Amino acid sequence: MHSSQPALPSGFPGNQFRVQDGGFRTLHAPILDPDSGGARRPAPGCGVVPIRADKNAIAGEGERIRFSLLMSTYQGDDPEHCRQALQSICDNSVLPDDLVLVLDGPAPEPLIAAIASFSHRLPLRLVHLSENRGLGEALAVGLEHCRYNWVARFDADDICMPDRFERQLAFIAENPHVDAFSSPVEEFRESPGETNRLLKSVPCGSHALAVYARRRNPLNHMAVMFRKDRVLAAGNYQGDACFEDYALWVRLLQQGACLDNMAESTVWVRAGRSMVMRRGGWRYARAEYDVQRKFLTSGFIGFPEFIRNLAVRIPVRLLSVGLRTGIYAICLRRTVR
């Protein structure tokens, strides 16, 4: 047992929660157990609460769309970055109606404390995976627990713009046929207020997006919103290492779903050297080959596109971090003025 623990907010029934060193601590937020069908773990004064999706996103005229927010974190995430991410949700003009945060494996004490500090300010529910399973499987489990059919995605180290959800809900209202969409994002190194942020754009219009998807990922995952039922029908997130989102969007397109993008940014993304490092090396190059091979065998791309994509993408994965950073900045991004 831990001899000393940081103070946690009270109000939720306490739940025993295993931490990295095998001890236990009390976390004052509902913890969902994926092995018990989505029920809260038993705790004093806390009954079993079934989790189900609400297909009626709009209850009536004049009422806004209700939506869930899906996040995942693991022991490698910086607690302060996670705190900033959750604070940016609190600061939004529209709050999510449901926030499912997956703890993917053992979690260190400071990360748990950062999350727990928001248990009174956000509709936060935790799904704890006893082992680290990777982002794809963590999101697949978390999605099953989302209450509403519209689901927004967000990473635990990025920052939502203050009106992100308000603008995204307006986009849904104006485009009722859309099944999944995202927006451009602005990448920063230290602070979203810094100059020379880099814009990662994505195409607008379903036709342009479908063409673009044969070469590059057509949606910015950290800024996406989608219909849960369409994603589940497409097989949910799967074990496509490093490309779980790209592979999902391709399956949606193959099933006839309508994908699109907003024209203006909604998320500030924490980039820099660490992000570029994660997107390179032999492991990443192999994952790139595997996903392109899957696109080929499924008929999404032809053999000439398969060869072109590998010829363009694989060498970039094997470059030094410095050269890869330069290619990202010069060829794949533009500076925000």
Structure notes:
This protein has 337 residues and is α/β, with parallel strands linked by helices. It contains eleven helices and 15 strands. The chain has an eight-stranded mixed beta sheet. A five-stranded mixed beta sheet has the order 8-14-10-11-15. A hairpin with a 5-residue loop joins strand 1 (15-18) and strand 2 (24-27). It is globular. The model is unreliable at 1-26 and 39-61 (pLDDT under 50).
Summarize the helices and strands and which ones pair or pack.
Blueprint: E1 15-18, E2 24-27, E3 31-32, E4 67-73, H1 79-90, E5 98-104, H2 109-116, E6 124-129, H3 135-145, E7 150-153, E8 159-160, H4 164-174, E9 180-182, E10 185-188, E11 198-200, H5 206-212, E12 225-227, H6 228-233, H7 244-254, E13 259-261, E14 267-270, H8 273-278, H9 282-297, H10 303-318, H11 321-332, E15 334-335
Parallel strand pairs: 3-6, 4-5, 4-7, 5-6, 9-13, 10-14
Antiparallel strand pairs: 1-2, 7-12, 8-14, 9-12, 10-11, 11-15
Helix pairs in contact: 1-2, 9-10
